[in-house]
Amino acid sequence: MSETILELDRVTTVFRTGWGRGRSELVAMREVSLDVRAGETLGLVGESGSGKSTTASVALGLREPTSGTVRFLGEPIGGPKQRRARRGLIQTVPQNPHWSLDPRMPVGLSVAEPLAALDGSRLTAHAERVTELLRQVRLDPALAARYPHELSGGQRQRIAIARALVTNPRFIVFDEAVSALDVSVQAQILNLIIDLQAQHGFGALFISHDLAAVRYLAHRIAVMRLGEIVELADTARFYETPEHEYSRQLLEAL
Amino acid sequence: MTAVIRVEGRRRSVLRRAWDYLASFDGLAKTAMWTLAVLFTAALLGRLFGLGGSPTAIVGPRLAPPSLAYPAGTDSLGRSLLPRLLEGVMTTLLLSAVAVLLTAVIATLCGIIAGYRGGRTGGLIMRVGDILYAFPAIVLAILVAAVVGPGYIAALCSIVLVTVPLMTRMVGQATRLVAQRDFITSAVISGVSTPVIMTRHVLRNISGTIAVQGTYALSVAILVEGGLSFLGYGVQLPGSSLGLLVQEGTLYMVKAPWLILLPGLILVLAILAINLIGDSLRDRFEPREARSLE
């Protein structure tokens, strides 16, 4: 079995808001345990408010959980200081293609940014690598000089993927990465992700409310509801014989 | 890749590009720019080549109406009004511009820190801004003048104090909007340091807000300078500023109305022009946010 990249061990995240009597608590993640292995995609599905996005930000090390541990390559993921130490190893492809790239920057520079952050070099110093990455995501390298608003949603999402891949990360979080695209473009992007994963061998957490997309590319699926993982199974098994009542409801709705 | 960017015919000279940019504004804003340009050029000519004569020399009878010899009439001491007007325009514009530059720097720094950092530091900056904002502007200005002593410095400090809170708040809000964007999160995850994110991403994306708010601050600045000089806490005699001239003019409003009308008119024109440019800038920078069908 391949190496475990990311591991969540009984992670609980609680949001507290308000003061005094108005104080309220919301448990966004309750004892969530999951792991992502190298070359594997774990699909995370669930309705809005089920805790998917909180799980993503915890897995990315952006939010410290209330209890439980998050391990990345066997080490506790820790706070912002450790984030600088493991920069380049974790990347993300965000949801909205409108805001996944800085609108004031040629997209080529956006792709180069994670590389520049690694060694403190200039954004313009990585032209060759950017060209290479754009080819990998099947875009014309000349597009590097364009601004995001000059590209289509699908092209922008490809750029976002190129940007995520540029440092050869071990782990990528796709947070609703295809939800904002239309269906034919979605299929292209999903195929692209599958091909790139075969090439690069990164572990992926693919968050989506779209069960069809998840079925297409995830190796295993975790179903979240009200902050808990109610079922975690291999994709094939899950779609044939969902065990949990809620999973069945989800599949019937499909 | 830089090569690719440059090949796209962006090699025109800076001047040419600046001209094209200005030419792309709407008619109203262009008229406003011309108005300001004419005012400024006239003031500059007055300063450099003595256009209209000396602003302090007594040249003719007291309170003479506008004529060929004294195009804007003379004041209560028999000084020609035209050179005093030009000097006043220069003082007012320069003073306000310097003050607004200061404001822009302070407000941008505070606003970005408050908006990006949030938390206690951000809250503190915003609350201090709110307190300053809650003060009536002119009372604040008089307070400053009382502490610093009337003069250029007092006017400068007052303008900064009056304009900083609003601009800080606007910059802070714009920053908060940008800070939520996915590309900032991506940059954070990629390990880009906070100062780099602030300058590379945040500053660039709020530059429109800064330009727009800076323009509005400029019109407020001219107003504050005018008010302060009018009350006698700003620019002092024998210097000249638009506010000071209006104040002098009030004494002879009936007998020599040109003394108050001309500086007042210029004051109104300048503020109107700057506000029109501000509106045009806002139209240019802000709709980009909301449109989805582009």
Automatic annotation (TrEMBL), chain A:
Pfam families, A to Z: ABC_tran
PROSITE patterns recorded: ABC_TRANSPORTER_1, ABC_TRANSPORTER_2
SUPFAM superfamilies: P-loop containing nucleoside triphosphate hydrolases (SSF52540)
Highest taxon listed in the record's lineage: Bacteria
Gene Ontology molecular-function annotations: ATP binding; ATP hydrolysis activity
Domain ABC transporter, chain residue ranges per copy: 9-251
GO terms, biological process: transmembrane transport
Keywords of the record: ATP-binding, Nucleotide-binding, Transport
Gene3D superfamilies: P-loop containing nucleotide triphosphate hydrolases
Similarity annotation: Belongs to the ABC transporter superfamily.
Protein name: ABC transporter domain-containing protein
Taxonomic source organism: Agromyces mediolanus (Corynebacterium mediolanum)
Automatic annotation (TrEMBL), chain B:
Annotated Gene3D superfamilies: MetI-like
Keyword Membrane recorded: yes
Top-level taxonomic group: Bacteria
Domain named ABC transmembrane type-1: residues: 89-278
GO CC annotations, alphabetized: plasma membrane
Family annotation (Pfam families): BPD_transp_1
Keywords: Cell membrane, Membrane, Transmembrane, Transmembrane helix, Transport
Recorded topology in the membrane: Multi-pass membrane protein
InterPro entries (UniProt xref): BP-dependent_transpt_permease, MetI-like, MetI-like_sf
GO BP: transmembrane transport
Record localization: Cell membrane
SUPFAM superfamilies per the UniProt record, alphabetical: MetI-like
Main localization (coarse): membrane
TM spans (from-to): 21-45, 93-116, 137-163, 215-236, 256-278
Family: Belongs to the binding-protein-dependent transport system permease family.
Designated name of the protein: Peptide ABC transporter permease
Native source species: Agromyces mediolanus (Corynebacterium mediolanum)
